[in-house]
């Protein structure tokens, strides 16, 4: 059979060339991040995943990339468009979804909580050292018995006691919490039942974080079960502009959009692993890439990826215009994670039995997709956020 020229965009999962939307300086920064990911993150991704290790040793190199935080956090940071920020997240997950989550918990959830809900003094106190990775952050919302129902009542409580607050309860699935210097804890104020945010600093008496064992996804992220037993937090560490779950939702709107980008990247990583395998694997005397059914699976995967890219690129434009709302972010998270889940399954199918081995790449993306599909709001919960927006009726309970 005749061979034809390979489309470079298709080979990299960028069939419609969305990266061409960046200006030259942004493209240079994205290329620099991509080189770091390929050279420093990719080589040990499988081994870290199997060992359940987080790449803490790369923090100084991440800092030097100048991609943590925003110009408002530290004026030494070069301004970035939402498109560039999204594409950076996509590139991270394209190489290692665990790395993307480790970065996102710190720079998105933890820093985002302080940026959105902190006073000016709190932002000045915490954000610059977090930009420099001198202090690492975590975000504690989900609980053992409260996941999707967080907006209706957290079991973790906060009680005012003089100039301090006393926190009691448990949190689960909290990424980075086993080593974080600053953990944002969301708790229900017993005085008025409103959700408030608190920054618990490392070493606080009564705070323990135990790493969850037996995970089959995002094993390169240290998720923790946190116990808060009479943890005292000074009033100065209560996030000044976090007075209800609506304030928590402001943070989640941004990070749900980030998960949509990560899901797109995870799908690309799986697609690239499947494509590379198909070009090398031979059956019946020729590469399986020349078989119709394999090409059909690859084309379906690329179509899913391209559809997701179209949605998240438009989402970034709306964000730039300050027009992105909760339902639009929820729709992107719902759609992109669903298409990702479908795509990684097709990638595993292309590899046959080898699809369950880490050495071929697709297995890690296949497993990690399950976590991205669930966190930052399940598909069902995000669909109900969209449903409320398009009908005017809430169907949550």
Summarize this structure briefly.
This protein is an alpha+beta fold and about 400 residues long.
Topology:
Elements: H1 8-11, H2 24-41, H3 45-51, H4 59-64, H5 82-95, H6 97-117, H7 120-131, E1 137-140, E2 157-161, E3 164-175, E4 182-189, E5 195-201, E6 207-211, E7 223-234, H8 245-280, E8 282-283, E9 286-287, H9 292-320, H10 326-350, H11 362-374, H12 379-391
Parallel strand pairs: 1-4, 2-4
Antiparallel strand pairs: 2-3, 3-7, 4-5, 6-7, 8-9
Helix pairs in contact: 2-5, 5-6, 5-8, 6-7, 6-8, 8-9, 8-10, 8-11, 9-10, 10-11, 10-12
Domain Acyl-CoA oxidase/dehydrogenase middle: 138-231
Pfam families: Acyl-CoA_dh_1, Acyl-CoA_dh_M, Acyl-CoA_dh_N
Cofactor: FAD
What does this 3D model show about the protein?
Its cofactor is FAD. It comes from Streptomyces tremellae. This is Acyl-CoA dehydrogenase family protein. Keywords: FAD, Flavoprotein, Oxidoreductase. By secondary structure, the protein is of the alpha+beta class. It folds into 3 domains: 124 residues, Orthogonal Bundle (Butyryl-Coa Dehydrogenase, subunit A, domain 1); 107 residues, Butyryl-CoA Dehydrogenase, subunit A, domain 2, CATH 2.40.110.10; 146 residues, Up-down Bundle (Butyryl-CoA Dehydrogenase, subunit A, domain 3), CATH 1.20.140. Strands 1, 2, 3, 4, 5, 6 and 7 form a 7-stranded mixed β-sheet that branches. It has a two-stranded antiparallel ribbon with strand order 8-9. The longest helix is centred in the middle third of the chain and has 36 residues. It is globular and about 75 Å long. The mean pLDDT is 94.
């Amino acid at each position: 059979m005749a061979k034809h020229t390979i489309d470079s965009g298709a080979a990299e999962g960028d069939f419609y060339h969305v990266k061409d939307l960046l200006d030259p300086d942004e493209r240079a920064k994205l290329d620099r991040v991509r080189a770091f990911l390929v050279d420093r993150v990719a080589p040990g991704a499988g081994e870290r995943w199997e060992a359940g290790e987080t790449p803490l040793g790369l923090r100084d190199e991440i800092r030097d990339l100048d991609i943590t935080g925003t110009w408002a956090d530290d004026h030494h940071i070069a301004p970035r468009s939402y498109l560039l920020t999204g594409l950076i997240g996509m590139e991270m997950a394209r190489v290692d979804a665990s790395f993307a989550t480790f970065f996102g918990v710190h720079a998105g959830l933890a820093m985002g909580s302080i940026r959105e809900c902190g006073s000016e003094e709190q932002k000045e106190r915490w954000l610059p050292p977090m930009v420099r990775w001198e202090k690492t952050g975590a975000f504690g919302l989900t609980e053992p018995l409260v996941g999707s129902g967080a907006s209706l009542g957290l079991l973790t409580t906060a009680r005012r006691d003089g100039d301090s607050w006393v926190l009691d309860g448990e949190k689960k699935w909290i990424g980075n919490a086993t080593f974080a210097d600053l953990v944002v804890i969301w708790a229900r104020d017993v005085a008025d039942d409103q959700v408030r945010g608190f920054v618990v600093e490392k070493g606080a008496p009564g705070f323990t974080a135990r790493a969850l064992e037996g995970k089959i996804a995002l094993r390169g992220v240290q998720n923790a079960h946190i116990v808060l037993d009479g943890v005292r937090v000074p009033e100065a560490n209560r996030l000044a502009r976090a007075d209800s779950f609506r304030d928590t939702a402001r943070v989640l709107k941004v990070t749900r959009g980030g998960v949509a980008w990560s899901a797109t990247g995870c799908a690309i990583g799986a697609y690239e692993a499947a494509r590379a395998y198909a070009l090398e694997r031979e059956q019946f005397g020729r590469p399986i890439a020349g078989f119709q059914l394999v090409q059909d699976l690859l084309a379906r995967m690329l179509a899913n990826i391209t559809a997701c890219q179209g949605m998240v690129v438009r989402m970034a434009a709306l964000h730039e215009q300050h027009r992105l709302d909760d339902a639009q972010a929820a729709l992107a998270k719902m759609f992109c994670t669903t298409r990702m889940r479908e795509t990684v399954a097709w990638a595993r199918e292309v590899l046959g039995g080898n699809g369950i081995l880490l050495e071929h790449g697709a297995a890690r993306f296949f497993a990690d997709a399950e976590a991205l599909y669930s966190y930052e709001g399940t598909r069902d919960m995000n669909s109900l956020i969209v449903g409320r927006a398009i009908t005017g009726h809430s169907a949550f309970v």
